[in-house]
Amino acid sequence: MEFSQRTSGRLLLVSLASLAYSCYQEAFSGFSGAAVVNASYFTFSTPSLLFCARRCRLQRKCLSFNFDVNNGECYLNLRSQVTPGTELQGGSPLQSFDISLWSEVRIFLILLTVIFSIMVLSPISYNKW
């Protein structure tokens, strides 16, 4: 493979990673320290905020979710931060996210960011690029 092909492959990789990272930053700007309370209908443990977002996204009734980064607890909510009558609790260790900000494309791009970061930072040589 010629040098120019490898270079253009890496430039494409970096461009995609940059796009995905901007989506990642926007998606992770949740309401830290103010959680939606008295709205959860399902709670489970998960190793990642992404799994929490994905699970909420797959259920029509889930309008937001709270995530506890300390213990990996995910709380799926029937109301969002902007739903009238929603109660918010300040000073909470939970981060709260409105699911309308998490499109399937955004979740996919975030996952791509993780994969590309591993590939770029890995000491393994990817000759096909």
TrEMBL record:
A Pfam match? PAN_1
What Gene3D superfamilies does the record tag this protein with?
Hepatocyte Growth Factor
Q: What is this protein called?
A: Uncharacterized protein
